[in-house]
Design goal:
Chain A: One of its GO terms (molecular function) is NADH dehydrogenase (ubiquinone) activity. Chain A: One of its GO terms (biological process) is ATP synthesis coupled electron transport. Chain A: InterPro entries: NADH_Q_OxRdtase_chainM/4, NADH_UbQ_OxRdtase, ND/Mrp_TM. Chain A: It is a multi-pass membrane protein. The structure holds 2 protein chains of 2 kinds. Chain A contains 20 helices and 2 strands. Chain A is mainly alpha-helical. In chain A, a hairpin with a 4-residue loop joins strand 1 and strand 2. The C terminus of chain A is likely disordered. Chain B has one domain. Helices cover 78% and strands 1% of the residues of chain B. The model of chain B has no long low-confidence stretch (mean pLDDT 81). Classes of the chains: A mainly alpha, B mainly alpha. Chains A and B meet through helix 5, helix 6 and helix 7 of A and helix 16, helix 17 and helix 19 of B.
Chain lengths: 497, 466
C-alpha cells in the first residue's frame, strides 16, 4: 500500500501545484517540496520501522496487487525489493534536490513546471516498482511525456529540437518493447493457457532460440536507448544540455537508471539464454561506450555537453558489468547506478549554478572561479574526483567491482575498459582546470558564492557520495537477493566467443 | 430502433421551419432518445428485417457510436453556423439524412440496403461539404467529392452486378453459401476488387485518398468532423459485416491486397502529414494513417472486431475533441486551420490547449489517453494472428506520427505572439455548453485511457449478440 501512497502523493501533489500556482508561485514551490519530501520519507520511514530482513526466501519487501483490466490479464501489481528500494530512494533524494535547484531558476509558469516535475518523478518511481509488464510500459511512458514538456518549455535556446529528439528516440524503443511484451504475452499464454502480463508468471516462460532472441532484442533496444549505448546515444547530449538544471539532474540521475534497471530486472531474468548469447557484443559495445564517451567528453567546450558525454562513458561500465553475469559485477552495476546518479547529478547542478551566475555554458569563458567562489570550487573538486574514480568516493567502489567481476569473463575488454579510467581522469581534471583554476576571466562582476539553499543541495550530495564510498556494505546487503531469487539462475560460463 | 432512427429524421423534417435553436434542441433530445431506446431494446436483439436489414449487437454498437458522434457534431454545428449567419436549417436535414444513411450501412446485410445507405450518405455529404457557398475552398471540395464519389458509386454498382452475376444473390450470407459451393471465380474476384475500390474511396484508404486533404480543408469544421467519424464508421461497419460473412480474411489474395493497402495507408498517411502547416489537412492525413491501423484489426478477423470497435470509439472521441477545438477557435471569416494560429495557445486559453493536447496525445497513442489502449488492442490482435509485418510497420509509423503531433503540441506551448483581440462570444450559453461537452470528451479520453476494461467488457457482450 505504501507504494501506491507514494506514487499517489506525487500525482496529486503535481495537480495541487498547478492549481495553487494561480494564486502564488511560492506556494506551488512549497507544495512540490512537501510532496517530494513526503514521498521520500514514507518508504524510508517504513523501512527503518520494519527493518525487513532480506533473506534468500523473502526478497520482496512489500507488494500490492489489484485488478486493472482483467479481460487481458492486466493487473495493477507493484512490488519492491532491495534494488527497487535503493533506486526509489535515489529517485526521491534527487527529486527533492531537483525541486530545490529550480527554486529560483524557474520564474514563469512555475505551477505547470512543478506539475511536470512531480509527474516525471511519479513515472520513474512507478517504473522501479511495476511488476506487471503492461503497467511497466504505462509508467515508462508516463515519465516520458512530462519530461518532454520540461525540456520543450523551460529548456535553453535549442530546446525544441532537443525535446523532439529525446521523445522520438525513447518512444521508438518503447514501442519496440511493447511489441516484444505482446509477443511474450502470447507465447506465455499459448504455453500455459494463462494469458497474463504478470512479471512473476512470465518468468516461467520457456523461449526457443530465435524467438527468444528477437523478443529479447525488443526489450534490450528500449533499455539501451535509455541507458544509452553508443550507437543509440545520440539524443543524450542534446537533451541534457538543453534541459533546465532540474531536468538534466533527473535525466542523468534517474532516467538513465531506468534503462539499466530494465536490463537487470527484465532482460537478464526473462531471457537468460538469449542474453548470454549476445553478452560478448553487449560488453564490446559497453567498452566502446566507455572509451568513445570519454574521448568526446574531453573534446567538448560546452560544460553541460561535457558532463553528458561522461554519462555515456559511465553507463558503458553498467553495460559491461550487467552482461558479465556474476555477482560481483552486478553489485558493482547497482553501485554505479547510485553513485553515478549522485555524482553526475551534482555536476549538472553545479553547471546550472554556474550558468545562473555567468549566463554561459562555455568553459572557455570560465576560468579562475576558485578565487571568486572557493566553496563551490572545493565541492566541485569532490565530484570531479568522484567522476574520475578516486578511492574513498562511491564511484571507485562501483567501477572497481565491475572491472573485477568482468575480468575473469573477458580479460581483453576489461583491460580496454580500464583505459577508460585514465581518460576519465583526463576529462575530469579538465573540468576542474578550465573552470576553477587559472586567471579569473569574469571581470565585470564577481559571481557570488553558494547560497544557503545551494549549500543544502550540495551538502546532501556530498554526504551521499562519501557515505557510499566509505561504507557500501548496506547497499550490497540490500541488493544481494535481487539477482538470485527471482527464479532465474545466472547462466554460468554461458559467455562464449 | 430502426423506427426510432427514422422518427428522428421525420420529426426534424417537420421542424425545419422553426428557428435554429429549436432545431438544435429538438435534434439533441431526439438523439438522446435514440440512445435510450438502444439501451432498452438491447434485450430484444438481434432482430432481423429480412431480407435487407439485421440489427445485431455489432450493428447496435456501431450505430451507438454514430449517434454519439452526431450528438457532438450537432452541438459544434450550432455555434459554428450561428456565427456565420447563414441559413442553417437545411444543414440539419442533410446532417440527419447522412446519419440515417450511415446507420443503414451498419445494419445492412444486403447489397441493396448497402447501396441505399451509401448513396444517402454521399448525396447529403456533397451538399454539406459545399454548404458555405461563398468560400472558394468549400465549393471546390464539394465538387471534388461529388465527382469522385459518383465514380466510386459506379464502381460499387458494377462490382455488385458482377458478384450478383456469379452467385445469383445479393444477400451477404447467400453469397457466402454460393461461394462455399462454387469457389471464387475470376469475375467474383473482380467484383470484389471493384467494391474494395469504392469502400477504399469512402474510407480514404491509399491509393484512393487523394480527395481527403482537400475535402477536410474545404469543408466547414463540423462537417469535417462528421466525415472523419460518422461516415467512416458506417462504411467500416458494412465492410466488417461483409467480410465476416464471406470469410474474406481466409482468402489469401484478399488478405494480401488489404495488407498492402494497410501498409500503404500507414506509410503514406504519416509521411504526408509530417510537414503539413494546415491543421485540418494534417488531421486528414493522420486519419488515413489511422485507418491503416484499423485495417490491422480488420485483417485479424473475428478477434479484431472488438479491438476495431474500441479503436473507432477512441478515435471518434479524439477527433471530435480536436475538431471541437478547431470549431471554437474559428473566426467568422475563416476556419482556424493554420498551425501558426495555435502558437502559444496554452498561455492564452489553457483549457482549450489542454483539450487539444490530450486529443493529440490520444491520436499518438500515449498512455493515460484512450488512444493508448486502443492501439494496444489493435497490436494485440495483430500479434495474436502473427501478422508481424503489419505490427512492425504500425509501430514504426506510429513513431513517425509522433513527430507531427509533437510539432503541434510544442506549438501550443511555445511562447505566445502578441495576443489578438478576443472576439465577443455571440452565444454564451452554447459556447459554454460546447466547451463543457469538450471537457467531457477530454475526461472520457482520460477515463478510457486509464480504465478501459468497462468498455471492453461491454463491447464483448454486445458482440456476442448475433
Amino acid at each position: 500500500m505504501i507504494l501506491v501512497l507514494m506514487i499517489g502523493i506525487l500525482l496529486l501533489g503535481g495537480i495541487a501545484c498547478w492549481l495553487v500556482a494561480q494564486r502564488s508561485a511560492m506556494a506551488a514551490r512549497y507544495v512540490a517540496l512537501i510532496a517530494v519530501i513526503m514521498a521520500f520519507v514514507i518508504p524510508l520511514g517504513w523501512f527503518i520501522q520494519n527493518k525487513p530482513a532480506i533473506t534468500g526466501a523473502n526478497k520482496w519487501l512489500v507488494q500490492y496487487q489489484a485488478n486493472w483490466i482483467p479481460a487481458f490479464g492486466i493487473s495493477f501489481h507493484l512490488a519492491m525489493d532491495g534494488l527497487s528500494f535503493l533506486l526509489i530512494q535515489l529517485t526521491f533524494l534527487l527529486g527533492v534536490l531537483a525541486v530545490l535547484c529550480s527554486w529560483n531558476e524557474i520564474r514563469e509558469r512555475s505551477g505547470f513546471y512543478f506539475f511536470n516535475l512531480l509527474w516525471t518523478l511519479a513515472g520513474i518511481a512507478g517504473v522501479f516498482v511495476a511488476m506487471d509488464l503492461f503497467l511497466f510500459y504505462f509508467f515508462w511512458e508516463v515519465m516520458l511525456v512530462p519530461m518532454y514538456f520540461l525540456i520543450a518549455i523551460w529548456g535553453d535556446f535549442n530546446r525544441r529540437y532537443a525535446a523532439y529528439k529525446f521523445f522520438i528516440f525513447t518512444q521508438t524503443g518503447g514501442l519496440l518493447m511493447l511489441l516484444a511484451i505482446l509477443a511474450l504475452y502470447f507465447i506465455h499464454g499459448q504455453q500455459t493457457g494463462n494469458y497474463t502480463f504478470d512479471y512473476f508468471a512470465l518468468l516461467n516462460t520457456t523461449l526457443g532460440g530465435a524467438t527468444g532472441r528477437w523478443i529479447m532484442l525488443g526489450f534490450l533496444i528500449a533499455f539501451v536507448i535509455k541507458l544509452p549505448m553508443v550507437p543509440l546515444h545520440n539524443w543524450l547530449p542534446d537533451a541534457h544540455s538543453e534541459a533546465p538544471t532540474a531536468g538534466s539532474l533527473i535525466l542523468a540521475g534517474l532516467l538513465l537508471k531506468t534503462g539499466a534497471y530494465g536490463i537487470l530486472r527484465f532482460v537478464l531474468p526473462l531471457f537468460p539464454q538469449a542474453s548470454a548469447a549476445i553478452a560478448w557484443w553487449a560488453m564490446l559495445l559497453g567498452v566502446v561506450g566507455i572509451v568513445y564517451g570519454a574521448l568526446l567528453a574531453f573534446a567538448q567546450t560546452d560544460l553541460k555537453r561535457l558532463i553528458a558525454y561522461t554519462s555515456v562513458s559511465h553507463m558503458g561500465f553498467v553495460l559491461l558489468g550487467a552482461f558479465a553475469f556474476n555477482e560481483i559485477a552486478l553489485q558493482g552495476v547497482v553501485m554505479q547506478l547510485l553513485t553515478h546518479g549522485v555524482s553526475t547529478g551534482a555536476l549538472f547542478v553545479m553547471a546550472g549554478m554556474l550558468k545562473e551566475r555567468l549566463h554561459t555554458r562555455d568553459i572557455n569563458q570560465m576560468g579562475g572561479l576558485w578565487t571568486a567562489m572557493p566553496q563551490m570550487g572545493g565541492l566541485a573538486l569532490v565530484f570531479v574526483m568522484a567522476s574520475l574514480g578516486l578511492p574513498l568516493l562511491g564511484n571507485f567502489i562501483a567501477e572497481f567491482l565491475i572491472l573485477m567481476g568482468s575480468f575473469p569473463v573477458n580479460p581483453v575488454l576489461t583491460v580496454i575498459a580500464s583505459v577508460g579510467l585514465v581518460l576519465a581522469a583526463l576529462y575530469s581534471l579538465r573540468i576542474a582546470q578550465k573552470v576553477f583554476m587559472g586567471q579569473l576571466q569574469v571581470v565585470s562582476e564577481r559571481p557570488a558564492d553558494l547560497s544557503a539553499r545551494e549549500w543544502i543541495i550540495m551538502a546532501c550530495l556530498t554526504a551521499a557520495i562519501i557515505c557510499l564510498g566509505l561504507y557500501p556494505q548496506p547497499v550490497f546487503d540490500l541488493v544481494k537477493g535481487a539477482f538470485f531469487v527471482t527464479g532465474y539462475q545466472l547462466p554460468v560460463a554461458g559467455v562464449s566467443n | 430502433m430502426v423506427l426510432a432512427m427514422a422518427a428522428v429524421v421525420v420529426i426534424l423534417l417537420i421542424a425545419f421551419r422553426a428557428s435554429h435553436t429549436v432545431i438544435q434542441v429538438t435534434g439533441f433530445v431526439m438523439m438522446c432518445g435514440v440512445v435510450l431506446a438502444m439501451w432498452f431494446v438491447r434485450d430484444t436483439l438481434p432482430r432481423e428485417i429480412p431480407p435487407l436489414l439485421v440489427v445485431d449487437g455489432m450493428a447496435a454498437l456501431f450505430t451507438g457510436l454514430i449517434i454519439f458522434s452526431v450528438l457532438v457534431v450537432g452541438l459544434l454545428s450550432y455555434i459554428y453556423f450561428e456565427e456565420r449567419e447563414e441559413n442553417p436549417k437545411e444543414y440539419y436535414i442533410l446532417l440527419f439524412l447522412a446519419t440515417l444513411g450511415s446507420a443503414i450501412l451498419t445494419i445492412s446485410r444486403h447489397f441493396v440496403s448497402f447501396f441505399i445507405g451509401l448513396e444517402l450518405l454521399s448525396v447529403s455529404l456533397y451538399a454539406l461539404i459545399a454548404y458555405l457557398r461563398n468560400r472558394n475552398n468549400a465549393v471546390e471540395a464539394g465538387v471534388k467529392y461529388l465527382v469522385l464519389a459518383a465514380l466510386s458509386s459506379a464502381f460499387l454498382l458494377f462490382g455488385m452486378a458482377l458478384i450478383y452475376m456469379e452467385t445469383g444473390s445479393m444477400e451477404f450470407t447467400a453469397i457466402a453459401k454460393a461461394l462455399d459451393a462454387g469457389g471464387a471465380s475470376v469475375l467474383f474476384i473482380m467484383g470484389l476488387g471493384l467494391i474494395v475500390v469504392a469502400i477504399g474511396f469512402k474510407l480514404a484508404l491509399v491509393p484512393f485518398h487523394l480527395w481527403a486533404a482537400d475535402v477536410y480543408q474545404g469543408a466547414p469544421a463540423p462537417v469535417t468532423a462528421f466525415i472523419a467519424t460518422v461516415s467512416k464508421i458506417g462504411v467500416f461497419a458494412v465492410l466488417v459485416r461483409f467480410a465476416l460473412a464471406i470469410h474474406l480474411q481466409q482468402n489469401t489474395l484478399a488478405v494480401t491486397i488489404f495488407t498492402v493497402i494497410a501498409i500503404a495507408c500507414m506509410i503514406v498517411g504519416n509521411v504526408l502529414a509530417l510537414m503539413q502547416q494546415n491543421v485540418k489537412r494534417l488531421l486528414a492525413y493522420s486519419s488515413i494513417a489511422h485507418f491503416g491501423y484499423l485495417l490491422v484489426a480488420f485483417l485479424s478477423g473475428n478477434a479484431g472486431v472488438g479491438a476495431g470497435v474500441f479503436y473507432l470509439l477512441a478515435y471518434s472521441i479524439t477527433l471530435l475533441a480536436a475538431f471541437g477545438i478547431i470549431t471554437l477557435l474559428s473566426t467568422r471569416r475563416r476556419d482556424a486551420d493554420e498551425l501558426s494560429g495555435y502558437r502559444g495557445l496554452f498561455w492564452r486559453s489553457p483549457l482549450m490547449a489542454a483539450i487539444f493536447t490530450v486529443a493529440l496525445f490520444s491520436l499518438a497513442g500515449i498512455p493515460l489517453t484512450a488512444g493508448f489502449p486502443a492501439k494496444f488492442f489493435i497490436l494485440t490482435a495483430g500479434v495474436q494472428q502473427h501478422m508481424w509485418l503489419l505490427a512492425v510497420v504500425l509501430v514504426l509509423t506510429s513513431v513517425m506520427g509522433l513527430f507531427y503531433y509533437l510539432r503541434i503540441i510544442s506549438t501550443l506551448f511555445a511562447a505566445p505572439p502578441i495576443t489578438p483581440l478576443k472576439e465577443r462570444t455571440l452565444h454564451p450559453f452554447f459556447y459554454f455548453a460546447t466547451t463543457a461537452s469538450l471537457v467531457v470528451l477530454m475526461v472520457l479520453l482520460g477515463y478510457l485511457g486509464v480504465y478501459p476494461s468497462f468498455i471492453v467488457e461491454n463491447v464483448r457482450e454486445f458482440l456476442l449478440i448475433h
